[in-house]
Automatic annotation (TrEMBL), chains A, B:
Domain of life of the organism encoding this protein: Bacteria
PANTHER family from the UniProt entry: CARBAMOYL DEHYDRATASE HYPE, HYDROGENASE ISOENZYMES FORMATION PROTEIN HYPE
Gene Ontology biological-process annotations: protein maturation
Residue ranges occupied by any PurM-like C-terminal domain in the UniProt entry: 187-333
Protein name: Hydrogenase expression/formation protein HypE
Organism (species): Streptomyces spiralis
Length: 361, 361
């Protein structure tokens, strides 16, 4: 971090033409919105600031949750802060995300989520009825996901130093014996499966934020995925990778998996389930559905031999009814994700620098 | 919550003469600073909003951390958000508090803290060097406390919706067999012990916030207390209650214990270790040291027969060098804390409505 000049306060604008710039931290002495976007800037913040500061190998695993050994138990442990704006949107609220998001991060290591913590940072002046509504959404979501909110905290900051309600949840769960799910385990030959239509959460939030209507109401897909994961593991414990493509969407998740495992990913564009309403909205907004956040979807890498059976089990589950085989893991172009377009061409799906839609979760 | 009128947005001023008002939520349809103060308003928020919303008995335990059974392990689980202002102060920083505060919440159930999560909410425009400094303070504090930061998250909010850096940590640790420490276990006859001089953290933060000098620099007492707790448990596993008197100070912690256990607490004013500099600063600022936050102290309820041995073990530990017997738990005036003054009189130490010093941790 010697290159950081504490006295420098100018912020350089992010150049969209430069989205693969390898080390923006060096040119950006201040935090920009993209540092919270789950893309390259977020990865650099972890790599250049947090990992060296904490100096430990667990964090470097870069999974959605850490898997720890404690008291004889295999424990999954994860946290996320939720700052979505607006607080309420079609299909859910910050409260739903705060539960489902952390439940899903635990589930992506194969864990059965058990307990959550909930810490609120409230802005002075926010209506207590709003806090109550968020808390009730959390309680209902926790019940639906089969987890208990076991501990919490509340801080209040002055008006103008928050945005109504921020919630940070952490969660713990148990990882069954014999299950070893992490991005490093992707290998050539794996089938790449997505659990349902993509892009709904991002478009739902964007539509209400911008006051847009697209003919039909598009609702967030926010949902807990641990049951679906359990159904998949019942078919085979040898699921290699699971990821919930939230910030940065499917594109960011697949890039992280490709980089962590040193494999390539090849997608078939026609196989990717993009609802027509999402495609239309993305066209209007200038967004790529591959980078739009989901809050109730997972992407799975499973051995090709198990793919059909896993797909069948997924489609029998409400959260996996729209599951689809969208591509494969390959030995070529390690660390890179490409998509074969409908016209027979191929394009690279790069890791986004930041998030197309800030504060999406 | 039927009495909440969502359309009402006026906030009634808090009347300091009315600090024991039993139900301020009913008169306050909006969040006020005191809701984050760890006093009566915080307790009401938990009782009236969060506990009904989450609908579970674990939360109602009201300990500094929840003790859970998971995979055969007795797990302590806790979270806190840290919004202290300024970020850096004599003796520490937000980073130190974010580690030590959660480590100490775990230790107050007798647990050996093991792993932390760290979630940042960054304000757009904050210097990366500041984030780096906070993260390094967290890394150093984690190493000192013997815990690992295992997982994390970063979100960024627009300028004007944060205050540089907010950090939420959660932690897990193991509670040894035979240890059962919780506020409900206080009983008449227990000795009440404090681990060292009180009021240092609050006065340290206040002095730099207000640009005040009191002749000598007063440094925060922020420190990890799990080792001290282990030394106490080595004397006797039958420690009844532990609490780190942070927000709301010793006064709030003792009131919570008295109420949870249905006992009374009687303190000897002369026995309470208040450093001269703290007393002078509190006199100048109009504060009561009993309500000023500490970040490296604990208060313990132990059987009187064990008190001398526990005190001896505490004084042999760096974090307990200034340990003192300050009072006793009594059957009289259940739920109430009184202090015998030096002049032979007695005064009630009530639960504060909010916090004398907002954003102290």
């Amino acid at each position: 971090m010697a290159e950081l000049a504490p006295e420098a306060t100018e912020t350089a604008p992010v150049d969209p033409a430069n989205w693969t710039c390898p080390a923006p931290l060096r040119d950006q002495p201040v935090v920009v919105m993209g540092h919270g976007g789950g893309g390259a800037l977020s990865a650099e913040l972890i790599h250049d600031v947090f990992a060296p500061a904490y100096g430990n190998p667990v964090l470097a695993g870069m999974g959605d949750s850490a898997v720890l050994h404690l008291g004889g138990a295999r424990l999954a442990f994860s946290t996320d802060s939720y700052v979505v704006r607006p607080l309420f949107f079609p299909g859910g609220s910050l409260g739903d995300l705060a539960v489902n998001g952390t439940v899903n991060d635990l589930a992506m290591s194969g864990a059965r989520p058990a307990y959550l913590s909930a810490a609120f940072v409230l802005e002075e002046g926010v209506e207590l009825a709003v806090v109550d509504r968020i808390a009730r959404a959390m309680g209902a979501a926790a019940e639906a996901a089969g987890v208990t909110v076991a501990t919490g905290d509340t801080k209040v900051v002055e008006a103008g130093h928050g945005d109504g309600v921020y919630v940070t949840t952490a969660g713990v769960g148990l990882v069954p014996e014999g299950v070893d799910i992490r991005p490093q385990r992707a290998r050539p030959g794996d089938a790449v499966i997505v659990s349902g239509p993509i892009g709904l959460h991002g478009v739902a939030v964007m539509s209400v934020r911008e006051g847009l209507e697209f003919g039909v109401e598009i609702a967030s897909d926010t949902a807990p995925l641990a049951d679906l994961v359990a159904a998949m593991l019942a078919v085979t414990p040898d699921v290699h990778v699971l990821r919930d493509p939230t910030r940065g969407g499917l594109g960011a998740s697949l890039n992280e998996i490709a980089r962590a495992s040193g494999t390539g990913v090849r997608l078939q564009e026609r196989a990717i389930p993009v609802p027509e309403a999402v495609a239309n909205a993305c066209g209007f907004l200038g967004l790529d559905p591959l980078y739009v956040a989901n809050e109730g979807r997972l992407v799975a890498f499973v051995p090709l031999t198990e793919a059909e059976a896993v797909l069948e089990a997924m489609r029998a589950h409400p959260q996996g009814a729209g599951a689809a085989l969208i591509g494969e893991c390959v030995a070529e172009h390690p660390g890179m994700v490409v998509v074969s377009t409908g016209l027979g061409g191929t394009r690279v799906v790069d890791l986004p620098l930041g998030e197309q839609l800030p504060r999406i979760c």
